[in-house]
Structure to design on (465 residues):
């Protein structure tokens, strides 16, 4: 018990020491808030759960959107993910690891839904060209937006065509902006493997983009 | 350094993960190899495109949708829906469900009994209809002084979680008396088989069914009231909840 408390403290101190001011301070605040919310939620506090949803909904929604393509399907998937989160939270023993735990849970849901939709022929009737990209968080001029939307559509198409493991690591690192350590925790892979897989995935992505640009 | 080694470093170079020596080796190779230089250019460009994808705002009806699902469904219906998603699996699923229901229902009936017993036998127990305040603020047990710190600004890192514990019962203990709370907590903390969550105004004890007898023994010197409480952790069907109010002695 003492050892566990000590480990928890060391983990938090470790995170604090590895930090520089600015956005890392923001991460520490977020970690502290998450721990507090997770524990309150484990004690049955629904308000704490609502706050957790608000904190993590954008990340999980964007993850889902990369798997199921349409906003309606992504919305339904994210709702299922958070329902499972609420029900499984009592089994989470280390609140500081909530983020990685949630990512893992979300990834499993995404994989299952993707396979289910694939079996039902959803993706053959929904082309990746038809992906409806909802309103972006930032706004820009219409011309620039059109150009960027085209590029984003192409990038999403390329990501969708990548092998599952490579797609996952690209999404986690470059779209979700997780650190190597967080990816390692989420996928249960050693740090070295994460780095080499990421390099391979990014090369695949680059080659596919190159191929698309070179074909008329 | 050859082309393969250099291209293996692309990702680390882009993320600023290389040390000064490797950066120098990397740049020296690019200076002499046109192919790698071009590949590195494409690599960086494709990363810019990738990272250009901005996060999309989550829909506004997400939270109400989650709550609607929490109210409407339970894990078993979700599980049934998933199982029957594929018609080919229906027959084997039905068999599996039959077996699962048999094994699920049997222990459920048995688990109610020990809880009733523990409430009846623990200390001086009376019943009340008065509601228990919601547990919505975390407080911290100071491990050295063994006192409660009600400040919600300090994250409670002193959570007591023994390894490899599979609790199936949650006992919530409420008390307005800090002294009574501390006394009980001191007794509980001698048990490393249970998980005790300190919360403002009380504590939650997670324990396995086989430890109910031991908990009964621990609670015996305390005066307790069995009180109504909204379902706690009702999402987890395996966890039964008993709510107790600890009276000042």
């Amino acid at each position: 018990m003492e050892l566990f408390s000590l480990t928890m403290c060391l983990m938090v101190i470790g995170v604090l020491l590895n930090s520089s001011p600015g956005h890392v301070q923001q991460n520490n605040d977020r970690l502290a808030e998450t721990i507090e919310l997770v524990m309150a939620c484990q004690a049955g506090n629904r308000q704490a759960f609502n706050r957790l949803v608000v904190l993590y909904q954008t990340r999980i929604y964007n993850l889902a959107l990369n798997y199921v393509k349409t906003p309606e399907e992504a919305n339904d998937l994210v709702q299922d993910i958070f329902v499972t989160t609420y029900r499984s939270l009592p089994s989470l023993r280390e609140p500081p690891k909530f983020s990685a735990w949630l990512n893992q849970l979300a990834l499993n849901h995404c994989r299952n839904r993707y396979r289910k939709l694939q079996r039902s022929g959803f993706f053959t009737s929904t082309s990746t060209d038809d992906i409806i990209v909802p309103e972006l968080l930032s706004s820009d001029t219409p011309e620039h937006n059109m150009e960027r939307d085209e590029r984003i559509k192409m990038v999403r198409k390329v990501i969708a065509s990548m092998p599952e493991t490579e797609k996952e690591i690209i999404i986690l690192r470059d779209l979700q902006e997780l650190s190597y350590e967080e990816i390692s925790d989420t996928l249960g892979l050693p740090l070295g493997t994460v780095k080499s897989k990421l390099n391979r995935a990014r090369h695949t992505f680059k080659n596919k983009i190159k191929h698309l640009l070179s074909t008329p | 350094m050859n082309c393969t080694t250099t291209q293996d470093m692309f990702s680390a170079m882009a993320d600023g993960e290389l040390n000064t020596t490797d950066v120098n080796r990397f740049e020296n190779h690019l200076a002499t190899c046109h192919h790698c230089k071009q590949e590195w250019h494409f690599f960086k460009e494709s990363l810019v495109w990738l990272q250009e994808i901005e996060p999309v705002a989550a829909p506004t009806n997400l939270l109400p949708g989650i709550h609607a699902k929490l109210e409407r469904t339970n894990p078993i219906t979700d599980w049934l829906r998933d199982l029957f998603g594929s018609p080919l699996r229906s027959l084997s699923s039905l068999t599996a469900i039959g077996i699962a229901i048999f094994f699920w229902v049997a222990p459920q009936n048995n688990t109610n009994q020990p809880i009733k017993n523990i409430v009846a036998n623990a200390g001086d127990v009376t019943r009340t209809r008065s509601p228990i305040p919601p547990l919505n603020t975390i407080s911290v047990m100071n491990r050295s002084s063994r006192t409660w710190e009600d400040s919600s600004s300090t994250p409670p890192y002193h959570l007591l979680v023994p390894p490899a514990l599979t609790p199936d019962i949650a006992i919530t203990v409420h008390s307005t008396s800090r002294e009574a709370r501390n006394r009980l907590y001191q007794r509980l903390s001698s048990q490393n088989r249970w998980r005790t969550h300190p919360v403002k105004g009380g504590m939650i004890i997670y324990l396995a069914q086989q430890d109910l007898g031991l908990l009964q023994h621990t609670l015996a010197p305390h005066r307790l009231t069995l009180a109504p409480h909204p379902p706690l952790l009702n999402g987890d069907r395996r966890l039964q909840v008993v709510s107790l109010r600890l009276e000042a002695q």
